[in-house]
Design brief:
By secondary structure, the protein is an alpha/beta fold. The protein has a 6-stranded parallel β-sheet, with helices on both faces. Strands 11-10-7-8-9-12 form a 6-stranded antiparallel β-sheet. Strand 10 and strand 11 form a beta hairpin. The termini are far apart.
Length: about 350
Amino acid sequence: MSLAPEAPVRVGVLGVGTVGAALVRLLSRHPEFIVTAALVRDPGRARDLGARPPRLTTDPDEAIDGADIVVELLGGVEWPTALMARAAERGARLVTANKAALAEAWPTWRPWIEAGRVGFEAAVMAGTPAIGPLTGALRGSRMHALEAVLNGTCAYLIGELERGVALETALAEAQRLGYAEADPSLDVDGWDAAHKVAVVARMTVAPELAWSDVVPRVRGVRGLTPDWVRTERAAGRRVRLVAYVEPDGAGGWRVGVEPRSIAAERPLAFLADGRNALVYRGDAVGEVWIAGPGAGAYVTASAVLADVLQAARGEPGPRPARAVVSPVDASPTPLGVVTPSLA
């Protein structure tokens, strides 16, 4: 899609929660964009939508029809994917922050992504760029391994365990503070991080990776105790919920999420609370560390807006690896990691 510079760019927004509302406010600062309509469940609910509030609708077709770019911020898998298929059929460029849909409905999304029709930088580390570097400058190097901390809720909980607070107590406080949902299972059981690392793995080294290959290797922070976390801290290590892409020893890649104890000198060990980080190691470039905020309405909306701007310029979105990239070393030394032996 290439839009004439003088033509207003029509944007349809699916979902106006905290991130969607922040996006609409950011878009209002760009006169070249017109939000034609925004899909919501309750049009009567009070929302701060900035200087140019869009028309709200409960009919997705009103947000999709006539839009040059359709932005999906609904969450979930089946319904958002079906709506984006409708938008793709009508010729729109697609932007999403929906890591669950990208991870679990990959066969549907993959052709659009391979065609460069989808922007999804916000799906992995919110406003901190990850997909761009991994599919850009770092593609000149062959990957040894990748590890990341991709969930702020679990980072907060582990920090509380280090202070001697039981997990159940820490989780209740996280819910009170708004760090965790009423149903915290997506975060606490590792699924949020698993969705993100599945996307990363497909874009870098394993485009054929099935979600069912990731599921057995997902383990969250349930079962962690203050005693074990504090023992590791006393030994000069830090516990983190680590999402990883690493050689499986058979010429392929193992992708999953698990608590790991990180040697104190490693970047992930001294990561501050509330920040995400990704450590990439390649044969040519060596080790690269990307870190920054991984959540928040404006933090996420800024990356969504960047994808909208890119689409409006007619530039293609990121493309996955064309085929499986064989590991440089079938069993590289882990990135300073001691894997815990927990029941």
